[in-house]
Amino acid sequence: SVWDGLQQAGVFARSALGQDLVVIGTYYGTAEGFPQANHVLPPNPGTMDGLLASLGSPAYLIDLRELPKAGPLADWFRRPHEVRDSLDGINLVRPLEAYDAILYIQQLTPSRRP
Length: 114
What we know:
Layout: H1 9-17, E1 24-31, H2 48-54, E2 59-63, H3 72-78, E3 81-85, E4 89-93, H4 95-98, E5 101-108
Parallel strand pairs: 1-5
Antiparallel strand pairs: 2-5, 3-4
């Protein structure tokens, strides 16, 4: 894709701002009620989006700064993983390089006026 080899925004911002910045990667399971929602497929189980969805919680935050520095969990979050991308379908991300935390929301819906 045209984005191959480019750094994610979190990597770039961290290099510019250092520890004064907290980068939160946001992921979701499905979307409902948006004009484009019929184009949003549930996450592929083999991607990072799919793993986050598999926990079954409606919403949660993972503080990646609190992970152990070594071991299988740290290794998993250091490796590149496929994620959904709104531009070309799939992208790769190394969570520990790109984010300080990950926010997952099971279902996105538009806000409604009271």
